[in-house]
User: Which sequence fits this backbone?
């Protein structure tokens, strides 16, 4: 969850691995901080192994025996840790488990939180529900949705959170390297992440969904990956209806350092910053600074719009030691620096407003997804007034919702606010139909 302000994100410069957007100014403030934070980790009950075989187990075994490397899904579930402030499994709360699938031969990780019985089954008391796939921001991971998945599953939705390629527990292949299956060269772009989301939906979610549609929920730069997935699905003009029926964007990245948006000053500063980070010794030391626990905590406090003062109860409740470690751990993996640098230099590609407008304009080929925007009033990186001016009246945006008093990652900061909104938006979707093959 670090933000590359250099290009992929917005703002005035380029920071590292935390919610999707710090700035050089933030890094200057934390320069010199050091320290090590203890890790506290509690385990969710291992309810999975205690239960008889169910549709949960089926959902992660789809394609396991396939000979195509892209179709492999690994079915060994692992219970997910529940840190401070997170919702552990209870008799009324479905457990969260971790699994992997293969994208062009790269191992990609995801979390699953599923109802006790699928809403489309004869034994379910719930109406058919649209599956939900959650997509994190830059430098974060699937862990950023652990406070949301149980609420979605309790309402009958099969809920997933995906680690994008290069983040979380997913593989971090070298940028420009040939993918293991030899079909494409690795790039950390929205086009690649959009393709990963589509492959995940097609190979993991839909075979067991029992319905013909899925909804995406995303935060920060994850919103562009989700919108790109919906856009590319419609651009292919297949004879069947698109699967992605809705995209809910939470504080989508404005990409203010994109080549199309740079001011004359940023047109000078941004390329200079990119060249500076391309100098490996500097980049290595800068990235090492960002990974320090106290530095990460300070950046997270900025992201969540809370005080960084020691003893501040409000900050301690949301920026926990567990959260800091969850952000820090992937940044310590081999390859994390290369992912960071690749995204820092990414100053082209799609813009969220362009993707939404194009899908809204091309209704002749396929109906656009229902796009809803949730925007935090105190987001320090994606400013509310800019987001409102860009998206509130944009054709293709169904609803624009203001979130008072919250920062860049409200789904983690205030799930009691975000979860009811997500469920409300999901209820407004047309009732999902059975897939064509089972109609």
Assistant:
């Amino acid at each position: 969850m670090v933000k590359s302000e250099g290009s992929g994100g917005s703002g005035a410069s380029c920071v590292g691995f935390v919610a999707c957007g710090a700035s050089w100014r933030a890094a200057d403030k934390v320069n010199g901080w050091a320290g090590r934070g203890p890790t506290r980790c509690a385990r969710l009950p291992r309810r999975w192994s205690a239960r008889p075989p169910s549709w949960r187990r089926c959902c992660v075994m789809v394609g396991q025996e396939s000979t195509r490397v892209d179709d492999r899904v690994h079915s060994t579930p692992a219970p997910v840790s529940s840190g401070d402030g997170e919702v552990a499994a209870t008799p009324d709360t479905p457990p969260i488990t971790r699994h992997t699938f293969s994208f062009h031969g790269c191992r990609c990780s995801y979390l699953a939180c599923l109802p006790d019985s699928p809403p489309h089954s004869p034994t379910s008391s719930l109406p058919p529900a649209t599956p939900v796939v959650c997509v994190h921001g830059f430098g974060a991971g699937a862990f950023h949705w652990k406070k949301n998945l149980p609420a979605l599953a309790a309402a009958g939705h099969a809920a997933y959170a995906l680690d994008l390629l290069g983040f979380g527990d997913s593989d971090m292949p070298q940028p420009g390297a040939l993918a293991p299956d030899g079909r494409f060269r690795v790039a950390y772009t929205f086009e690649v992440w959009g393709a990963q989301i589509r492959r995940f939906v097609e190979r993991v979610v839909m075979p067991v969904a029992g319905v013909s549609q899925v909804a995406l929920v995303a935060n920060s730069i994850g919103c562009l990956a989700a919108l790109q997935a919906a856009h590319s699905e419609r651009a292919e003009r297949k004879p069947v209806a698109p699967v992605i029926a809705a995209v809910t964007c939470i504080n989508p990245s404005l990409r203010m350092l994109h080549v199309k948006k740079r001011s004359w000053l940023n047109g000078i500063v941004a390329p200079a910053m990119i060249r500076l980070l391309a100098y490996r010794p500097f980049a290595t030391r800068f990235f090492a600074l960002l990974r320090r626990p106290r530095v990460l905590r300070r950046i997270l406090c900025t992201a969540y719009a809370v005080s960084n003062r020691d003893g501040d109860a409000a900050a301690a409740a949301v920026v926990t030691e567990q959260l800091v470690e969850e952000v820090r751990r992937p940044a310590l993996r081999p390859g994390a620096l290369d992912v960071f640098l690749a995204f820092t230099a990414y100053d082209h590609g799609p813009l969220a407003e362009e993707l939404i407008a194009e899908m809204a304009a091309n209704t002749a080929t396929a109906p656009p997804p229902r796009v809803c925007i949730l925007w935090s009033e105190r987001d320090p990186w994606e400013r509310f007034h800019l987001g409102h001016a860009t998206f509130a009246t944009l054709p293709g945006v169904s609803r624009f919702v203001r979130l008072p008093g919250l920062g860049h990652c409200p789904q983690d900061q205030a799930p009691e606010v975000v979860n009811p909104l997500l469920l409300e938006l999901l209820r407004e979707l047309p009732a999902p139909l059975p897939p064509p093959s089972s109609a």
